Amino acid sequence: MILFNAGADNLLTAIKEKPFKLEKDIQRLFELNLKQIMGLELVKSEFSIKNKRIDTLAFDPQSKAFAIIEYKRDRNASVFDQGVTYLNLMLQNKEVFIIEYNESLNRTLKRTAVDWSQTRVIFVSSDFTENQIEATNFKDFSIELLQVKRYENRTVSITPIQKSKNAESIKQLTGKNTAAIKTITAVIKTYTEEDLLKGKPDTVTELYQQFKAAIHNLTDGIEVQPQKFYIAFKKDGHNITDIAIQTAGLKLIINIKRGALDDPKHLARDISGIGHLGNGDYGIKVSNNDHLEYIMSLIKQAL
C-alpha cells in the first residue's frame, strides 16, 4: 500500500515508511492503545510462565477470553509453532492466567467466567512472509496476524491478514504438533457465520444477509467477526452492532450508551438494566425488513 499526502494544489506527495527499529517500539505502541486497536484490556507486559516469556497478555471483555500478543521483526520466525506452544501453554495453566489477571487488575475473575474456547494468539509485525501467512491459514485455528507500519507523518496503519476463503481445517494437519493441536482443537473453537446460521430457517438466513449488506453500505471498512453467540460488526476495532441469529428472526444490539440514541420511532428497547449478549444498551428484534432503512439510521449513530 502506498500512502500520499494531498497538497492544497491537489498534487500528491508519497509518504515514506518509517520502519520500527525495535520490537519494543511496536510493543509500546500496542500496549498503550490496546483498547483502541483491538478492544482488549492489558493484563501484563512481559508475562513469564514455565520458562516462556509472553510479550503481552491481554483480555477480551467481549468474548471473555485471554489473548496472547507477540511482536516480530524476524521474518524467519515460525509463528505457527510458537502459536501452538502458547495456546497449549495457556490451556494447561488456566489458573495461572486467572491469578495474573486478578492480581494485575485487582479484580475477581472466576475460572468459570472465562470462555477458553475463544483463546487466541496474535502476532504483530511490520511484514510477514508468504510462508508465515500460509502456515497460519486455517479456518478453524485461532492464530491471527496483524501487519503494522509507521510513516514519516506519524501515521500508523494496522492491517489484519485475512484467512483465505478456501482455507483448510487445522484438523487435517499431521506432523510434529499433532498431539498439541488435538488438545487445542478439543477446546478452542473458531466460529463462522455458517455456524451461527446452521439450522435456522431460510427466511432468517435471507433476512440476515439483507441486514448484513445494509450495514456494509453504511461505510467502508466494516469487519464481520462471528463470536460464540452473535456476529459482531466492527469499524476500526469498535463494535457498532451485534446480531444474534434466532429461530424467528434477528436480535440486534446497537453499541450506544443509554440516553444517547436518537430514536424518534422508539423502535429500540433500552436493555441497559438487564443482562444480555453483545455490546451496547439498545436492542431491536426483527422478523422482517420493514424498518431496515430506519434501523440503519440508528446503527449509523454508533459509527
Walk me through this protein's architecture.
- Helices cover 27% and strands 27% of the residues.
- It is an alpha+beta fold and 303 residues long.
- It has two domains: 4-185, Trna Endonuclease, Chain: A, domain 1, CATH 3.40.1350.10; 193-302.
- A six-stranded mixed beta sheet has the order 3-4-5-6-7-8, with helices on both faces. Strands 9-10-11-12-14-13 form a six-stranded antiparallel beta sheet.
- Helix 3 (79-92) packs across helix 6.
- The chain is globular.
- The model has no long low-confidence stretch (mean pLDDT 92).
Write a brief structural summary.
With 303 residues, the chain is α+β, with helices and mostly antiparallel strands. Helix content is 27%, strand content 27%.
